[in-house]
Sequence to fold (193 residues):
Amino acid sequence: MREHDERGGGSRAAREGRQELPPQSPEEQARAICLRLLTGSPRTRRQLADALHKRGIPDEVSQEVLSRYEEVGLIDDAAFAGAWVESRHRGRGLARRALAQELRTKGVHATLVEEALEQLDSDQEEQTARELVERKLRSTRGLERDKRIRRLAGMLARKGYPEGMALRVVRRALEAEGENTDDSDDSDGTDDF
Fold:
């Protein structure tokens, strides 16, 4: 036993560690789990409820602890949704549809999802789509025009952009590129639209 205590930082630390970890009540366990998870990053109420359920915390205890954390502002699904939309739109270029799906997966109520998505207007979303296409455009040079359209529009579709917007943005980008390059590239596929 002494050898084990020495590796663990000495027998006094081991005794102190045992003294600090008496059996916890379900409420104490729930609070500790929530605080640990919230320390890493913000979470929705449902994410925390799922984590407590997985760890065997009774539902009534979970609801009590989660309600208290909402009261004191440690859990705020509306703030979470707003920050998520801002971060994921700016960082990954995700459109409203993809953002809504992610928030629903995290358990954010539909009303809060709608409110968070209101911060993105159509012009901002289209501007982000144009920026994404501009970044990807170079890597498609040398491909047939139809293949470029499919690749670029497919990239936007995976990020949640509506088909009409995606095709419009891609076609405009290709047309603008054709104006900036020699005529041989432009004469090859402009009649395909």
Notes: Residues 145 and 189 are 6 Å apart (CA to CA). Confidence is low (pLDDT under 50) at residues 1-9, 179-193.
